[in-house]
Amino acid sequence: MKVHSLSLMAIFFSLAYMQLVKGKPRHDCQSRCGNVTIDYPFGISTGCYYPGDDSFNITCEEGKPNVLRNIEVINFNHSGQLRGLLPRSTVCYDELTNNEFESLWFRLDNLSFSPNNKFTLVGCNAWALLSTFGLQNYSTGCMSLCDSPPPPNSKCNGVGCCRTEVSIPLDSHRIETQPTRFENMTSVKHFNPCSYAFFVEDGMFNFSSLEDLKNLRNVTRFPVLLDWSIGNQTCEQVVGRNICGGNSTCFDSSRGKGYNCKCLDGFDGNPYLSDGCQDINECTTRRHNCSDTSTCENTLGSFHCECPSGYELNTTTMSCTDTPKEEPKYLGWTTVLLGKLSSLVFDSFVF
Ligand SMILES: *[C@@H]1O[C@H](CO)[C@@H](O)[C@H](O)[C@H]1NC(C)=O
Ligand SMILES: *[C@@H]1O[C@H](CO)[C@@H](O)[C@H](O)[C@H]1NC(C)=O
Ligand SMILES: *[C@@H]1O[C@H](CO)[C@@H](O)[C@H](O)[C@H]1NC(C)=O
Ligand SMILES: *[C@@H]1O[C@H](CO)[C@@H](O)[C@H](O)[C@H]1NC(C)=O
Ligand SMILES: *[C@@H]1O[C@H](CO)[C@@H](O)[C@H](O)[C@H]1NC(C)=O
Ligand SMILES: *[C@@H]1O[C@H](CO)[C@@H](O)[C@H](O)[C@H]1NC(C)=O
Ligand SMILES: *[C@@H]1O[C@H](CO)[C@@H](O)[C@H](O)[C@H]1NC(C)=O
Ligand SMILES: *[C@@H]1O[C@H](CO)[C@@H](O)[C@H](O)[C@H]1NC(C)=O
Ligand SMILES: *[C@@H]1O[C@H](CO)[C@@H](O)[C@H](O)[C@H]1NC(C)=O
Ligand SMILES: *[C@@H]1O[C@H](CO)[C@@H](O)[C@H](O)[C@H]1NC(C)=O
Ligand SMILES: *[C@@H]1O[C@H](CO)[C@@H](O)[C@H](O)[C@H]1NC(C)=O
Ligand SMILES: *[C@@H]1O[C@H](CO)[C@@H](O)[C@H](O)[C@H]1NC(C)=O
Questions:
Q1: Which numbered atom of ligand 8 lies nearest the CA of 258?
Q2: Minimum-distance ligand to the CA of 315?
């Protein structure tokens, strides 16, 4: 019995290994969800996303792609970033219970927050707390104090709004956000009935004290940038068995875990597929700098400007010019020849 389960284990491991080495999705994978193109390592069903990491499992419902069940995907790119929508958390003043919370907790699994997001609080006499749990626990937050409506042009600088950088440990399995109000709410509730805490990508939220203190202009979800990478090892550790395809290279993820792939310069496509990166024809896609398209010659990964014989490429103007040095030389030869000939003719005449 023991031997039996061991051999099953062995088969399982070699299968998993083969899948990881080949890193090839099925051919019939759904490539779009609504307006979003979904491609490998992300995918919509079994065999379509990178095996062994459910963080690449996209669910498509009503034309909306979601990652980790409920983070709606806006877009992502091959260099390891994904833009998604994350909901806000809320606390409202309530006469009876005093406070009414709508806190938020979620997991990011193998995705992580990029440094280009801020944890933000909107509200007066309130503070927001962010706590994460994992091998290391982490918490941070910010506080906003104001008894009356802040001036209309105020920035998110601690009066009606505050924000802070976040560096959540990679292994966190639970992230909680919680806005809280200071006890006596009577002074602010008429212009700021609720406070909100949320993550948002830099530049995607501009605080307006006139509009946001009521209900955040009805915005309930904000764009965030999440980082992703393949596995938890570096390129050096997976050399020879990374999933990067032909005409591509591996690079270590800047977040300090796993690797990503990119097409070589002059190639384009999906570097996570074995034959994803194909040569860019610079000549037909206006990416060349030859002065005349007709002289452009495509090469693998590059191009060159090919001049007709008798012409030379001027590398400053990238145009073909008459070869000024060779011509006098050639002419020189002809004159010499002609001279000889004429002298011969002359000689014969003389003779
Ligand atoms: C796709 O984009 C179009 C145009 O931007 C928009 O009208 C439509 O609602 C979008 N569809 C989905 C499913 O998001
Ligand atoms: C992908 O995630 C959804 C939602 O969590 C789940 O129902 C589905 O089974 C997952 N797909 C696979 C192939 O595991
Ligand atoms: C895509 O990749 C570039 C780096 O090549 C990065 O600057 C950009 O912010 C990325 N993210 C998204 C969501 O497009
Ligand atoms: C993190 O917080 C949880 C819950 O409060 C606690 O059980 C755990 O011991 C903490 N871990 C560390 C490393 O402090
Ligand atoms: C709450 O604030 C109001 C107005 O600032 C003040 O009149 C009231 O005494 C305060 N109540 C408590 C319990 O501090
Ligand atoms: C916020 O303001 C900046 C600078 O004025 C602008 O570039 C950016 O587009 C604005 N963002 C939003 C979401 O309105
Ligand atoms: C927010 O929603 C309310 C109720 O639906 C509506 O009256 C109000 O105009 C909306 N505000 C904005 C800024 O869209
Ligand atoms: C995260 O990636 C590791 C491999 O690096 C994998 O073993 C693990 O199952 C992944 N976690 C989830 C929740 O998918
Ligand atoms: C990578 O993830 C696997 C599975 O989760 C784990 O067993 C291994 O220790 C991790 N390796 C590193 C270098 O973190
Ligand atoms: C590399 O690019 C060339 C030119 O597009 C293509 O012919 C070749 O098949 C590519 N290699 C792989 C492994 O995809
Ligand atoms: C290239 O063209 C520029 C501008 O016409 C000219 O100044 C330069 O001398 C040329 N260079 C050569 C090597 O002919
Ligand atoms: C033309 O493009 C090539 C390749 O991109 C580059 O090396 C070269 O410097 C460019 N020359 C000029 C004059 O722009």
A1: 5
A2: 12
Taking domain 284-322, whether its CATH number is 1.20.81 is answered by no
C-beta separation of 202 from 164 below 8 A: no
For residue range 98-126, what is the model confidence (pLDDT) as tens digits? Answer: 667 778 889 999 999 999 999 999 999 99
Mutate to test the pocket of ligand 2, among 54, 58, 73 (most ligand atoms within 8 A of CB): 54
Question: 321 falls in which pLDDT band (50, 70, 90)?
Answer: confident
pLDDT more than 90, % of the chain: 58
Q: Whose CA is nearest to atom 10 of ligand 7?
A: 218
Q: Is 57 a pocket residue for ligand 2 (Cβ < 6 Å)? A: yes
User: In the structure, which protein residues have their CB atom closer than 6 angstroms to any atom of ligand 5?
Assistant: 184, 186-187
Residue-range domain boundaries for the chain: 17-77, 82-227, 231-279, 284-322
What is d(CA 254, CA 79) in angstroms, rounded to the nearest whole number?
10
In the chain, the amino acid numbered 225 is L
d(CA 211, CA 209): 6
Q: Which ligand is nearest to the CA of 63?
A: 1
pLDDT at 338: 39
pLDDT of residue 344: 40
244 within 8 A of 276, measured Cβ to Cβ: no
Q: What pLDDT does 351 receive? A: 39
